[in-house]
Amino acid sequence: MSIELKLPEIDKKQTRLKVEEVIETYRLYLLTIPEERLPKITATYSLVPPANTNSFYSATEDLAIKAVDEERKRVRFVEWFTKAINRLAPKEREALYLRYLDEEELFDYEVYNSLGMSESYYHQKFKPRLLLKLAMALNIAIYKDME
Questions:
Q1: Which of 1, 38, 85, 141 lies in disulfide reach of 135, CB 3.0 to 4.6 Å?
Q2: Using CA atoms, how far apart are residues 40 and 75, in angstroms rounded to an integer?
Q3: What would the DSSP string read from start to end of the chain?
Q4: In angstroms, how far apart are the furthest CA atoms of the chain?
Q5: Quick check: is 131 in a domain?
Q6: Are the CB atoms for 7 and 146 separated by under 8 Å?
Q7: Is the pTM of this model over 0.85?
């Protein structure tokens, strides 16, 4: 008696596009997060009695809360992406950094030359596997429909 295990097939093209979209979002978020990353939260005390209205927050407080929530979302995204990158092998991290994450993105030929790889190996094996591994680490792989 044998057990047959069918794993879903990954849609490599759609997964690559999704990974590149996430990388671009990561780059944009890095530009918007202040260096302090998170606001300091300290207890405050006031002698002013609370207002007796049905409104929990003023419009200014609502805007401030939305701004802080958006910043936290961006910080969580950057941390999530960074953890996934750190799960890759050192050479894969280097290639990803050179190709997508450095201030000045390099072209593929510059990346495979700096890593000492042949063009065919880089394009046929290394880069597709790198993007697939990143998609798996980020848990964003897109699967083909199973019948």
A1: 141
A2: 14
A3: ------PPPB-HHHHHHHHHHHHHHHHHHHHHS-TT-S--------SSPPP-SS-SS-HHHHHHHHHHHHHHHHHHHHHHHHHHHHTS-HHHHHHHIIIIISSSPPPHHHHHHHTT--HHHIIIIIHHHHHHHHHHHHT---BPPP-
A4: 77
A5: yes
A6: no
A7: no
Within 8 A by CB and 6+ apart from 87, the residues are: 137
Tokens of 51: 């207002």
Count the residues in the chain. Answer: 147
Q: Residue 17 is encoded by which pair of tokens?
A: 């596009």
* pLDDT tens digits along 96-131: 999 999 888 899 999 999 999 999 999 999 999 999
In a domain, 73, yes or no: yes
Quick one: CA dihedral 53, 58, 61, 66, positive or negative?
positive
Work out how many domains the chain is built from and give that number: 1
